[in-house]
Amino acid sequence: MIFLAVTMGFFAESLREYFGDRQKETEYMHSLAEDLKKDTATLHYSIRRLQRDIDNGHELMVLFAKNELSSQIDLRILDLTVAHSVDIIFNDRTSSQLKSSGSIRLIRHRNISDSLSQYWNNEIEIMQAHDKFENFREKQHDIGFKTFSWYWAFFSPQLMGADSSVIKTMPFKAIINPGNMNEFMSASGNLFNEATYQYEPSLEKQLALGTWLIEKIHKEYPSK
Q1: CA–CA separation, 26 and 34 (whole Å)
Q2: How many domains does the chain have?
Q3: Measured between alpha carbons, how far is 21 from 27 in angstroms, rounded to an integer?
Q4: Residue 116 belongs to what domain range?
Q5: What's this model's pTM, rounded to 2 decimal places?
Q6: Structural contact between residues 83 and 136, judged by C-beta atoms closer than 8 angstroms
Q7: Least buried of 51, 66, 80, 202, by fewest C-beta within 10 Å?
């Protein structure tokens, strides 16, 4: 009788632990899904912003190759030559808890835990691609400020907050130092290649994985 009582006690404790772990697992997964939704929204925005740089970079190189850049209106030249920063910050609220507490062991579905580990690894690759992109962009900007009237057109006090119709009426030339054009285009080519073949693909891959994880979590851990 004593042995049976002890055995039943262990069984009851194991059962409580099992249901407790399942509850924690579900709570973690629901929280993770919310974080991933925020990530995917950020990724959509960053991809759109980066695509703008890629499209402008492509048009810029085509115009330069055809020797048609100088024939464009000054405002268009300035728009094509300025590449914007494309930052990405991932929401690690739930991920940091899973990592620090070792609670990833609670995830029963191997495809989810493996994909989550891949998602975290992708974050590192994206940050590396981002840093390379920003390095190329900063180099392009260093040369660009010596080549174009960026400062006067975009940062002059009389133009701060002005719309494009006002800027069009201002007497300035976009290209102020044509001798720097080859160097600027070389830097733009490096920026375009990094954005097109490294940075954007890494963002697209993360977006696809994040979207898949959200759908899988909703399927395996439906809300009551």
Answers
A1: 13
A2: 1
A3: 10
A4: 2-220
A5: 0.84
A6: no
A7: 66
